Amino acid sequence: MIVKRLRIPYHFPSRSTSKKTNMGKTNVYIINDDAIFDVGISSDKTTEILKNSIGNFDKKLIISHAHVDHFGAAYLFNEIYAHKSACLKLKDAEEEYFRLVHIHFLNEGVPLNLIERMRINVEEEFRRFIKPTDKCRVISNKIKIGDETFKVIHTPGHSYSHICLYHKDSKSIFCGDVLLEDVIPIPIIEPIDEFERYDVMSLYLETLEKLISLDIKKAYPGHGDIISKHDEIIFRYIDNWEKRSIYVWETLDGKTAFEVTTDLFPRSHLFLSMAKIIAIVDFLHSKGFVEKEEGRKGRVYFKVDEIESIRELWRKIKEKMIRKARSNQ
Ligand SMILES: [Zn+2]
């Protein structure tokens, strides 16, 4: 397998720490001179970098997931492969996705004037950098790149549309944003319709179980440098989510998700911090540690059970992860 990496800059006004965390650039991988994995935001700079390195756009494009910094410039290519959910989001540049997210946020207590502001921010920060295209085809569970076959693994959690490409012979994986060294990826809200949404944290944990069971020597992430110890990263995420779930649980009694968000992250980017809190609240609810009630200010959450039971849940999650990690040794 021959891999070449390009680094495509993107600008998120919300990411003030981007220089420090290496998050200001998307890694685009050229694999076996036949396919490109991820493409970066739609911008003149992206087009220029791609033109200078691959010449024209007749290669296959494979998209890890439907986030602007990974699929915004996909329209440049004619042969695009991605998860079904990413193809849908590419077709309307995430218009329907954000429409549903705003309905969910409204139900979680975000005031209408802030929803209006979020709509403007979404256009400015995300949708402006995605050019829609209907050339996306649903990827199957295998794909041929050059002479080699790669396994396509569905890895939902950070985004429901997320896939990884695994190359067994070289024990390599192209892992998009599922495994990142410098930051803990957010399990981002994923509405199914106006009322239902996925429990994205549980999905992410299942994804991590899949990944820790694989024999991986090199993981090529969507941002930052190549990862050699993916299991350490996975346990770091779990420790972080355990801590976060406990302080969210302690904070939420009688509050909406919006109130928890403004209590814990008063000055952070509202979309990303709401996503963080909703992921935890949905997870705790699915595990029976939280009850909810529809109130005048939005959906309100209440604590159930004891803190020790939440710690016990995370202990079991870690034990299972250790068993899965051993299964590939
Ligand atoms: Zn992402």
- Please list the strands of the largest sheet in the order they lie side by side: 1-2-3-4-5-6
Shape: globular
The CATH topology of the largest domain corresponds to Metallo-beta-lactamase, Chain A
- Indicate the CATH class of the largest domain: Alpha Beta
Structural class: alpha/beta
Which consecutive residue ranges, at least 5 long each, have pLDDT under 50?
A: 15-22
CATH superfamily of the largest domain: Ribonuclease Z/Hydroxyacylglutathione hydrolase-like
- Proportion of residues in extended strands: 15-25%
CATH architectural designation of the largest domain:
4-Layer Sandwich
Number of strands: 13
The count of helical stretches stands at 11
Average pLDDT level:
94
Total number of domains? 2
Biggest pleated sheet? 6 strands, mixed
Helix/strand order, N-terminal first: EHEEHEHEHHHEEEEEHEHHHEEH
Helix content: 40-55%
Account of the protein in words:
It is a single chain. With 329 residues, the chain is α/β, with parallel strands linked by helices. 41% of the residues lie in helices and 19% in strands. The model is unreliable at 15-22 (pLDDT under 50). It binds zinc ion. The site of zinc ion has 5 residues, from loops.
Brief sketch in words of this structure:
This protein has 329 residues and is of the alpha/beta class.
